[in-house]
Amino acid sequence: MFNSTKRVINSGWKSFLRNKSFSVAVVFILVFVLVLIPCLFVFQGMTRFLTSSVQEKADISVYFVQESLPKDILFIQEKLEELPEVKSVIYLSKQEVMEKFVEKHKNDEKIMQGLEEYGNNPFFACLNIKAFQASQYESIMGFLEASFINDYIDHTSYSESRTVIEKIFSITSFVNNTGIFLAILFSLIAVLVCFSQIRLAIVNSKEEIKLMRLIGASNWFIRGPFIAQAIIAGIFSAFIAMFVFTLSCFFLSSTIEVFIGDFNVFEYFINNFALIFSIQFIVGVSLSSLSSIFAIRKYLKA
Amino acid sequence: MISFQNITKKYFSDIVALDNISFDVEEKEFVAIVGKSGAGKTTLLKLFLREEAVSSGKIFFKGEDIHRMKKRCIPLLRRRVGVIFQDYKLLKSKTVYENIAYALEILGADKETVKNDVSYVLDIVNLKKQANNFPDQLSGGEKQRTAIARALIHRPEVIIADEPTGNLDPYHTRDIIELLKKINEFGTIIILSTHDKEIINNLEKRVITLEQGRLVKDEKKGRFIL
């Protein structure tokens, strides 16, 4: 058995080296498929980063009547934080709200003059509430309106930002779903292309397979070298694909960062390198060997 | 040793390729099967290798009905037979050495045996210099000698030669036939299919004549008469 396995591997290796057109074609297709894996992986990372940063910007503000005491608002904050729908609640006192406003508009003389003329602090203390999902804001609002808290509330930003929030969440969910759909679609196309390429190569060898059977070779002895050859192609492809992607990532990372902001593609890729390469390696080897097994099966039926 | 009993082979249920053929082949025998193209020579050999199924009849090899063998036993049957084809049928991606060694490797022979035996057979067929050449780099005669070397390397009980000289010039034809005769002298059964009149008349061996799928003549020391 050891002798036979050694021969099969040796024969597969020789075929890989000798059938250059087959090897180059299969490796090329496999590299395409395998480069797609880290691409999709990074794309998913990017969309996750983008959607979460967009979602971060969606919140509602609850403004409290001027008479509200900070301790009351902090109590309400605690109550809100207990709700499972609430992701975070940030308290901003009247003073903080004003400081923020001043900081934002310090260069606008008219506004600053108006604020000075008013004299007192005209702002309301508020709570910025973030939910996990857009749909949860309604129930949070329901909670606020139905309880004693309602007496403390002057107004909220919910009615004006409701449509925006829902749009943000529906767009990000669409982007996520599209990403998953595209990943599945591209993977399927790639698998089919790869399978067809290997099948084509084996069709070209059908006369040889027939002859091997006539000489008395067992199915394992015929199939083995083709599988070994495909596995070798898979291994080569995994390394080439990783090399190509690493280089591309390295050089494109800074350009992508300009568009996406804080998301560093190369860093993200390096952090997930072991996982991505393992997936590439396993997919490369299994895709090529399975394609080979299925393609050759037809010619081994007695 | 080999017994063809009432063999009929039909294609598409109405084209009769072989019609009730019966004959036996004894040990160490050299049998020539002659007939015009389409007489059924190749079909008969294909049936013996179980490349195709019989429509009716039985073929026994050392008492075993070939067409009742289990599928997994077919490779074992074929390993007991060496086959030489008119179009050589060499493995294009393998060298002369590897083509010949392949027949031994499928038997599981160890590396040393393969090396020694291939070297010995290459010497017999006078192909030592071409050992590392690929089939595309060989002449017709060299290809056929490679095919013969592959057919005999594992010392089969039977060698089937289907028109082995069909693509060769007279010089190489004589060479190949001499080689087959020599192999037969060592005790291997040779079943030679041909329509070369000169070969048959010089051979002075048993000749079975097929005509339109029927066995019309079986002579101990036959001549080519059609």
Largest interface: A-B, 19 and 24 residues
Adjacency order of strands in the biggest sheet of chain A: 2-3-1-4
Strand content of chain B: 25-35%
Radius of gyration of chain B: 17 Å
Cα distance spanning the termini of chain A: 23 Å
What oligomeric arrangement do these chains adopt? heterodimer
Terminal residue distance of chain B: 28 Å
Shape of chain A: elongated
* Secondary-structure element series of chain B: EEEHEEHEHHHEHEHEE
Percent range of helical residues of chain A = over 70%
Order of helices and strands of chain A: HHEHEHHEHEHHHHH
User: Which of globular, elongated, flat, extended, rod-shaped describes the shape of chain B?
Assistant: globular
Overall residue-averaged pLDDT value of chain B: 89
Fraction in beta strands of chain A = 5-15%
Main sheet attributes: strand count, strand direction, barrel closure of chain B: 6 strands, mixed
How many strand units of chain A?
A: 4
Features:
heterodimer, A: 302 residues, alpha+beta, 4-stranded antiparallel β-sheet, B: 226 residues, alpha/beta, 33% helix
Topology overview:
The complex is a heterodimer of chains A (302) and B (226).
Chain A: H1 2-18, H2 20-56, E1 60-64, H3 70-81, E2 86-92, H4 94-105, H5 109-118, E3 126-131, H6 136-146, E4 153-156, H7 158-204, H8 206-215, H9 219-260, H10 265-271, H11 273-297
Antiparallel strand pairs in A: 1-3, 1-4, 2-3
Helix pairs in contact in A: 1-9, 2-7, 2-9, 2-11, 7-11, 9-11
Chain B: E1 2-11, E2 15-25, E3 30-34, H1 41-48, E4 56-61, E5 64-65, H2 74-79, E6 81-85, H3 96-105, H4 111-124, H5 140-152, E7 158-162, H6 170-185, E8 189-194, H7 197-203, E9 206-211, E10 214-219
Parallel strand pairs in B: 3-8, 3-9, 6-7, 7-8
Antiparallel strand pairs in B: 1-2, 1-4, 4-5, 9-10
Helix pairs in contact in B: 3-4, 3-5, 5-6
